[in-house]
Write a structure and sequence with these properties.
about 300 residues, mainly alpha, hpI Integrase, Chain A, three-stranded antiparallel sheet, about 55% helix
Length: about 300
Protein backbone atom coordinates (compact mmCIF):
# COMPACT_ATOMS: atom_id res chain seq x y z
CA UNK A 1 0.00 0.00 0.00
CA UNK A 2 2.88 2.34 0.78
CA UNK A 3 4.48 1.51 -2.57
CA UNK A 4 1.29 2.59 -4.35
CA UNK A 5 1.27 5.87 -2.42
CA UNK A 6 4.90 6.44 -3.44
CA UNK A 7 4.00 5.66 -7.05
CA UNK A 8 1.14 8.17 -6.89
CA UNK A 9 3.35 10.92 -5.44
CA UNK A 10 5.88 10.28 -8.21
CA UNK A 11 3.04 10.58 -10.73
CA UNK A 12 2.03 13.96 -9.26
CA UNK A 13 5.62 15.16 -9.53
CA UNK A 14 6.60 13.86 -12.96
CA UNK A 15 3.41 13.62 -14.99
CA UNK A 16 1.29 16.31 -13.36
CA UNK A 17 4.14 18.66 -12.50
CA UNK A 18 2.58 19.63 -9.17
CA UNK A 19 4.56 21.52 -6.56
CA UNK A 20 6.59 19.91 -3.79
CA UNK A 21 4.30 21.56 -1.24
CA UNK A 22 1.23 19.98 -2.86
CA UNK A 23 2.93 16.57 -3.03
CA UNK A 24 3.75 16.83 0.67
CA UNK A 25 0.17 17.77 1.50
CA UNK A 26 -1.18 14.75 -0.39
CA UNK A 27 1.41 12.51 1.20
CA UNK A 28 0.36 13.63 4.68
CA UNK A 29 -3.30 12.84 3.97
CA UNK A 30 -2.53 9.43 2.51
CA UNK A 31 -0.12 8.69 5.36
CA UNK A 32 -2.96 9.29 7.81
CA UNK A 33 -5.21 7.05 5.71
CA UNK A 34 -2.60 4.29 5.69
CA UNK A 35 -2.28 4.47 9.47
CA UNK A 36 -6.07 4.36 9.81
CA UNK A 37 -6.34 1.30 7.53
CA UNK A 38 -3.70 -0.57 9.55
CA UNK A 39 -5.64 0.08 12.75
CA UNK A 40 -8.82 -1.15 11.11
CA UNK A 41 -7.37 -4.35 9.62
CA UNK A 42 -7.42 -3.32 5.96
CA UNK A 43 -4.51 -4.85 4.07
CA UNK A 44 -5.15 -3.64 0.51
CA UNK A 45 -6.72 -0.56 -1.06
CA UNK A 46 -9.38 -2.73 -2.68
CA UNK A 47 -10.59 -3.62 0.81
CA UNK A 48 -11.82 -0.06 1.35
CA UNK A 49 -15.37 0.95 0.57
CA UNK A 50 -17.11 4.31 0.62
CA UNK A 51 -18.26 3.72 4.20
CA UNK A 52 -14.67 3.14 5.26
CA UNK A 53 -13.50 6.41 3.70
CA UNK A 54 -16.42 8.18 5.34
CA UNK A 55 -15.32 6.75 8.68
CA UNK A 56 -11.74 7.92 8.01
CA UNK A 57 -12.90 11.46 7.21
CA UNK A 58 -15.03 11.42 10.35
CA UNK A 59 -11.94 10.52 12.35
CA UNK A 60 -10.14 13.52 10.83
CA UNK A 61 -13.05 15.79 11.72
CA UNK A 62 -13.08 14.45 15.27
CA UNK A 63 -9.39 15.32 15.53
CA UNK A 64 -10.41 18.99 15.16
CA UNK A 65 -9.62 19.30 11.46
CA UNK A 66 -11.59 22.27 10.14
CA UNK A 67 -14.00 22.09 7.21
CA UNK A 68 -11.63 23.63 4.67
CA UNK A 69 -8.84 21.18 5.57
CA UNK A 70 -11.35 18.33 5.43
CA UNK A 71 -12.37 19.35 1.90
CA UNK A 72 -8.71 19.33 0.87
CA UNK A 73 -8.26 15.84 2.34
CA UNK A 74 -11.31 14.68 0.39
CA UNK A 75 -9.80 15.99 -2.87
CA UNK A 76 -6.60 14.06 -2.08
CA UNK A 77 -8.61 10.88 -1.61
CA UNK A 78 -10.54 11.38 -4.84
CA UNK A 79 -7.48 11.91 -7.03
CA UNK A 80 -5.62 9.03 -5.37
CA UNK A 81 -8.38 6.45 -5.84
CA UNK A 82 -9.03 7.69 -9.37
CA UNK A 83 -5.34 7.04 -10.02
CA UNK A 84 -5.66 3.48 -8.61
CA UNK A 85 -8.63 2.76 -10.88
CA UNK A 86 -6.81 4.03 -13.97
CA UNK A 87 -3.81 1.84 -13.12
CA UNK A 88 -6.14 -1.16 -12.66
CA UNK A 89 -5.04 -1.51 -9.06
CA UNK A 90 -8.67 -1.43 -7.88
CA UNK A 91 -11.88 -2.04 -9.78
CA UNK A 92 -14.31 0.36 -8.10
CA UNK A 93 -13.57 3.90 -6.93
CA UNK A 94 -14.82 4.14 -3.30
CA UNK A 95 -14.13 7.88 -3.12
CA UNK A 96 -16.33 8.85 -6.08
CA UNK A 97 -19.64 9.04 -4.09
CA UNK A 98 -18.13 11.11 -1.27
CA UNK A 99 -19.50 14.61 -0.87
CA UNK A 100 -17.51 17.58 0.37
CA UNK A 101 -18.43 18.94 3.82
CA UNK A 102 -20.47 22.11 3.78
CA UNK A 103 -18.34 25.22 3.88
CA UNK A 104 -18.70 27.33 6.98
CA UNK A 105 -18.36 31.10 6.95
CA UNK A 106 -15.83 32.15 9.53
CA UNK A 107 -16.06 35.83 10.34
CA UNK A 108 -12.71 37.62 10.56
CA UNK A 109 -11.54 38.82 13.94
CA UNK A 110 -11.17 42.57 14.41
CA UNK A 111 -9.90 45.07 16.95
CA UNK A 112 -11.98 48.00 18.12
CA UNK A 113 -10.61 51.49 17.52
CA UNK A 114 -9.67 51.95 21.19
CA UNK A 115 -7.52 48.81 21.18
CA UNK A 116 -5.81 49.84 17.94
CA UNK A 117 -5.05 53.24 19.46
CA UNK A 118 -3.63 51.61 22.59
CA UNK A 119 -1.45 49.35 20.45
CA UNK A 120 -0.06 52.18 18.35
CA UNK A 121 0.44 54.77 21.07
CA UNK A 122 2.27 52.30 23.32
CA UNK A 123 5.34 52.19 21.05
CA UNK A 124 8.26 54.10 22.59
CA UNK A 125 9.70 56.23 19.81
CA UNK A 126 12.80 57.12 21.82
CA UNK A 127 14.02 53.54 21.69
CA UNK A 128 15.77 51.92 18.73
CA UNK A 129 13.40 50.51 16.09
CA UNK A 130 10.46 52.34 17.64
CA UNK A 131 10.08 54.58 14.59
CA UNK A 132 10.31 51.61 12.21
CA UNK A 133 7.83 49.47 14.11
CA UNK A 134 5.32 52.31 14.47
CA UNK A 135 5.53 53.00 10.72
CA UNK A 136 4.86 49.32 9.99
CA UNK A 137 1.89 49.14 12.34
CA UNK A 138 0.41 52.44 11.17
CA UNK A 139 0.70 51.36 7.53
CA UNK A 140 -1.02 48.03 8.23
CA UNK A 141 -3.95 49.83 9.82
CA UNK A 142 -4.01 52.92 7.60
CA UNK A 143 -3.84 51.17 4.25
CA UNK A 144 -5.02 47.61 4.92
CA UNK A 145 -1.91 46.04 3.45
CA UNK A 146 -1.19 42.33 3.39
CA UNK A 147 1.89 41.07 5.20
CA UNK A 148 3.70 40.33 1.93
CA UNK A 149 2.88 43.81 0.67
CA UNK A 150 4.49 45.41 3.72
CA UNK A 151 7.62 43.29 3.35
CA UNK A 152 7.93 44.01 -0.39
CA UNK A 153 7.17 47.76 -0.27
CA UNK A 154 9.89 49.76 -2.05
CA UNK A 155 11.03 53.36 -1.75
CA UNK A 156 10.45 53.97 -5.46
CA UNK A 157 6.80 52.97 -5.00
CA UNK A 158 6.22 55.49 -2.23
CA UNK A 159 4.89 58.97 -3.04
CA UNK A 160 4.99 61.04 0.13
CA UNK A 161 3.72 64.17 -1.64
CA UNK A 162 0.57 62.58 -3.06
CA UNK A 163 0.29 60.23 -0.04
CA UNK A 164 0.12 57.00 -2.04
CA UNK A 165 1.97 53.69 -2.03
CA UNK A 166 2.02 51.40 -5.06
CA UNK A 167 1.88 47.76 -4.00
CA UNK A 168 1.79 44.45 -5.83
CA UNK A 169 -0.71 42.03 -4.34
CA UNK A 170 -2.03 38.58 -5.16
CA UNK A 171 -1.81 37.55 -8.78
CA UNK A 172 0.85 40.25 -9.36
CA UNK A 173 -1.90 42.86 -9.47
CA UNK A 174 -0.70 46.38 -8.77
CA UNK A 175 -2.81 48.96 -6.96
CA UNK A 176 -2.38 52.37 -5.38
CA UNK A 177 -3.27 52.62 -1.71
CA UNK A 178 -3.70 55.94 0.11
CA UNK A 179 -1.67 56.59 3.25
CA UNK A 180 -3.45 58.24 6.19
CA UNK A 181 -2.09 61.28 7.97
CA UNK A 182 -0.74 59.43 11.00
CA UNK A 183 0.82 56.68 8.92
CA UNK A 184 2.38 59.30 6.66
CA UNK A 185 3.87 61.10 9.65
CA UNK A 186 5.21 57.82 11.05
CA UNK A 187 6.76 56.91 7.68
CA UNK A 188 8.44 60.29 7.31
CA UNK A 189 9.91 60.12 10.80
CA UNK A 190 11.22 56.62 10.19
CA UNK A 191 12.71 57.48 6.79
CA UNK A 192 14.29 60.70 8.01
CA UNK A 193 15.63 59.50 11.33
CA UNK A 194 16.04 55.72 11.47
CA UNK A 195 16.17 53.91 8.15
CA UNK A 196 19.66 55.19 7.29
CA UNK A 197 20.96 53.77 10.59
CA UNK A 198 19.84 50.30 9.48
CA UNK A 199 21.01 50.51 5.86
CA UNK A 200 24.30 48.93 4.76
CA UNK A 201 26.35 48.61 1.59
CA UNK A 202 24.18 45.79 0.24
CA UNK A 203 20.84 47.29 1.27
CA UNK A 204 18.20 47.39 -1.44
CA UNK A 205 15.31 49.83 -1.68
CA UNK A 206 12.92 48.03 0.65
CA UNK A 207 11.20 50.57 2.86
CA UNK A 208 11.42 48.48 6.00
CA UNK A 209 14.79 47.05 6.99
CA UNK A 210 16.07 44.59 9.53
CA UNK A 211 18.88 45.39 11.96
CA UNK A 212 21.26 43.83 9.41
CA UNK A 213 20.11 46.09 6.62
CA UNK A 214 18.15 43.49 4.69
CA UNK A 215 14.42 43.30 3.98
CA UNK A 216 12.21 42.16 6.83
CA UNK A 217 10.90 38.62 6.50
CA UNK A 218 7.18 37.88 7.02
CA UNK A 219 8.02 35.87 10.15
CA UNK A 220 9.97 38.78 11.61
CA UNK A 221 7.11 41.20 10.95
CA UNK A 222 4.66 38.81 12.64
CA UNK A 223 7.04 38.70 15.58
CA UNK A 224 7.27 42.50 15.72
CA UNK A 225 3.48 42.82 15.82
CA UNK A 226 3.21 40.27 18.62
CA UNK A 227 6.03 41.87 20.60
CA UNK A 228 4.39 45.29 20.36
CA UNK A 229 1.02 43.87 21.39
CA UNK A 230 2.61 42.20 24.40
CA UNK A 231 4.35 45.47 25.36
CA UNK A 232 0.95 47.21 25.16
CA UNK A 233 -0.46 44.64 27.62
CA UNK A 234 -3.04 43.38 25.14
CA UNK A 235 -4.38 39.92 25.90
CA UNK A 236 -5.92 39.36 22.47
CA UNK A 237 -3.91 37.44 19.87
CA UNK A 238 -2.62 40.22 17.61
CA UNK A 239 -1.28 39.40 14.14
CA UNK A 240 -0.73 41.41 10.93
CA UNK A 241 -3.89 40.31 9.11
CA UNK A 242 -5.95 41.33 12.14
CA UNK A 243 -4.96 44.94 11.46
CA UNK A 244 -6.05 44.52 7.82
CA UNK A 245 -9.41 43.14 8.98
CA UNK A 246 -9.77 46.03 11.42
CA UNK A 247 -8.96 48.53 8.66
CA UNK A 248 -11.77 47.19 6.45
CA UNK A 249 -14.29 46.82 9.28
CA UNK A 250 -13.75 50.33 10.61
CA UNK A 251 -14.12 51.79 7.12
CA UNK A 252 -17.43 50.00 6.70
CA UNK A 253 -18.64 51.04 10.14
CA UNK A 254 -17.97 54.65 9.26
CA UNK A 255 -19.92 54.54 6.01
CA UNK A 256 -17.37 53.63 3.32
CA UNK A 257 -18.77 52.02 0.17
CA UNK A 258 -18.09 48.30 -0.14
CA UNK A 259 -16.73 48.73 -3.68
CA UNK A 260 -14.18 51.24 -2.41
CA UNK A 261 -13.11 48.86 0.36
CA UNK A 262 -12.77 46.10 -2.26
CA UNK A 263 -10.43 48.28 -4.30
CA UNK A 264 -8.38 49.31 -1.27
CA UNK A 265 -7.93 45.70 -0.16
CA UNK A 266 -7.11 44.49 -3.66
CA UNK A 267 -9.88 41.90 -3.74
CA UNK A 268 -10.64 40.67 -7.26
CA UNK A 269 -14.15 39.56 -6.25
CA UNK A 270 -16.63 41.67 -4.28
CA UNK A 271 -17.84 38.45 -2.60
CA UNK A 272 -14.55 38.30 -0.70
CA UNK A 273 -15.10 41.80 0.64
CA UNK A 274 -18.71 41.12 1.62
CA UNK A 275 -17.54 39.12 4.65
CA UNK A 276 -17.05 42.47 6.38
CA UNK A 277 -20.76 43.27 6.04
CA UNK A 278 -21.41 40.18 8.17
CA UNK A 279 -18.97 41.48 10.77
CA UNK A 280 -20.79 44.82 10.82
CA UNK A 281 -24.19 43.12 11.11
CA UNK A 282 -22.89 41.07 14.03
CA UNK A 283 -21.73 44.28 15.72
CA UNK A 284 -25.10 45.97 15.16
CA UNK A 285 -26.95 43.01 16.66
CA UNK A 286 -24.67 43.14 19.69
CA UNK A 287 -25.28 46.88 20.17
CA UNK A 288 -29.04 46.37 19.82
CA UNK A 289 -29.06 43.55 22.34
CA UNK A 290 -27.02 45.57 24.83
CA UNK A 291 -28.81 48.88 24.66
CA UNK A 292 -32.39 48.26 23.53
CA UNK A 293 -34.83 47.84 26.45
CA UNK A 294 -36.26 44.74 24.79
CA UNK A 295 -33.02 43.59 23.19
Amino acid sequence: MQMQIDSFILYLATERGLSTAYQLSVQQTLGKLLLWTSKNSHEQWRDLGTDDLTAFLTSLRNSDLDASSLRIALVHLKIFFRFLVKRNLIEVDPAEPLLAPKATTKLPETLDATTVDKLLTSIDLTKRLGLRDLAIMELFYSSGLRLSEICNSMLESLDLDDKFLRVTGKGNKTRLVPIGARALDALKRYLNNERHTLAGKKTHSNIFLSVRGGPLSPDRVRQIVKERAKAANLDQNIYPHLLRHSFATHLLENGADLRVIQELLGHSDIATTQIYTHVDQKRLKSVHKTFHPRG
